[in-house]
Amino acid sequence: MPITHVILDWDGTITDIDRESQSFQELYPQLFCERLGIDQETYRTMFDELRDDVLSDPGLGFEILGYDVVPAAADPYLLTQKTIQVTLQQLRDGSLDVPHADLPDDESAFLIDLYKDAVGRAENEAYFRDGKDATKRFLDDLITHKDVAIVTNSSTAKVEAQLGELGYTNDDISHFTIRGNAKKLFVTPSYDSLPDEVTPPGFPRAVQLRRGHYNDVLTDLEQQGYSPESTAVVGDCYELDLALPEVLGYATVQFATPFTPEHERAYNEGKGPTCFVRTYGELSEALC
């Protein structure tokens, strides 16, 4: 059956998340140092070394509410946060020797507040993969030939604003079905109708599948015509965007970023030439 519908991730898939997050990547460790009284110049080299360690370990995951839900280096936001988590762990066990204030009793609350502070202060400029013109041409072609839903962890308002930056009017934007706050990062153990987890060939860690809210979004879209038989799901992170849809029977396409793990590339390329792409041109061909 031909692909007539497309479910599209947004952050990292359409946006250039590395450029977009540059301000956050600088602010987060800076604020961390301020709160713990750590000399920033001393820590900067340590941070860079720890960040490289996280990047080089494909089996390292990022935990939320006790579940290992995504590769720790899947995007710059996660990578930066994981590096600070590793820093706190090494400060606690004494393997990182740097003068600091008392460590927080409630580390989760500390990290959540730190994240919110950094996000609130960070610059909010939008950057698009290959620039605005190339992105607009791709999306124009896509909505001309397919029904398109955007499913993202970001807010619907943020996606609408960024579509506006691309030159879309409110009437144009109505051609997209937008489902924000998809909560793809969150596991819902009670969803026993879904498999618990799966470990694809070559993966160093199991992939969590019971992402209940994301499953609900897909179910809702299926009732609007986005059936597994006629729909392709496109995303930059296999674990976050594509693993659940794949198990549910959707065609999936991974859109590479500089943070794509080698095992994800190998797995998706191994499924066929339309399952892993690097450019808008390749993606358009994959969705024909």
Strand residue percentage: 5-15%
- How would the global form be characterised? globular
CATH topology of the largest domain: Rossmann fold
Helicity range: 40-55%
Number of domains: 2
The biggest beta sheet is recorded as: 6 strands, parallel
Instruction: Provide the spatial order of strands within the biggest beta sheet.
Output: 5-4-1-8-9-10
Count every beta strand, where a strand is a DSSP E run of 2 or more residues. 10
Radius of gyration: 20 Å
Arithmetic mean of pLDDT: 95
Number of DSSP helices? 12
N-end to C-end Cα span: 11 Å
**CATH classification, class level of the largest domain:** Alpha Beta
Question: Can you give keywords for this protein?
Answer:
Rossmann fold; 288 residues; six-stranded parallel β-sheet; 2 domains; alpha/beta; two-stranded antiparallel ribbon
What does this structure look like?
- With 288 residues, the chain is α/β, with parallel strands linked by helices.
- The protein contains 12 helices and 10 strands.
- It has 2 domains: 5-16 and 127-286, Rossmann fold (3-Layer(aba) Sandwich); 19-121, no CATH class.
- The protein is globular, with a radius of gyration of 20 Å.
Give a concise summary.
The chain has 288 residues and is an alpha/beta fold. 47% of the residues lie in helices and 13% in strands.
